[in-house]
Automatic annotation (TrEMBL):
Domain PH per the UniProt entry, residue ranges: 1-100
Stored InterPro entries: PH-like_dom_sf, PH_domain
A Pfam family matched in the record: PH
Organism of provenance: Rhizopus delemar (strain RA 99-880 / ATCC MYA-4621 / FGSC 9543 / NRRL 43880)
The protein, known as: PH domain-containing protein
Lineage start: Eukaryota, Fungi, Fungi incertae sedis, Mucoromycota, Mucoromycotina
PROSITE patterns: PH_DOMAIN (PS50003)
SUPFAM superfamilies the record matches: PH domain-like (SSF50729)
């Protein structure tokens, strides 16, 4: 396993930070994963190199790197380690909930956009 990470789940992104101890507890930003159209699943111990309670999170969209300087064309899987099977189930449930809500919002925006363009087209034909 790598360095200790703390995960912070928001409505559209999962942040990961590293605890640092400089003049009191602090968190150092290490990165984020955009959850829009992401996929999440539990990993077997064998898939995770012998480590139990891992989650694979695969963002579906490419974007700009953390410094907003380079376009990233490929996505990569992120492996999250959680402490227990119960935590694994909770994290997967919550991540899926956020992803589902983002998908639902995207569909609503797409529907509104297509209705708007359809009404604009009918205005031009009248």
């Amino acid at each position: 396993m790598g360095e200790e990470r703390i995960y912070l789940l928001f409505t559209d992104v999962l942040l990961f930070v590293k605890p640092v101890d400089q003049k009191g507890p602090r968190l150092q930003y290490k990165g984020h994963i955009t959850l829009d159209r992401a996929r999440v699943r539990a990993m077997t111990k064998e898939e995770a190199g012998g480590v139990e309670h891992c989650i694979e999170l695969i963002p579906s969209i490419a974007g700009v790197d953390n410094l907003n300087t380079t376009f990233v064309g490929t996505t990569s899987a992120h492996v999250l380690y959680v402490g227990s099977e119960a935590d694994q189930k909770i994290w997967i449930e919550r991540l899926n909930y956020v992803i589902h809500n983002l998908d639902r919002l995207a569909m609503m925006k797409q529907d509104a956009s297509s209705r708007s363009s359809t009404s604009k087209e009918s205005n031009y034909t009248n």
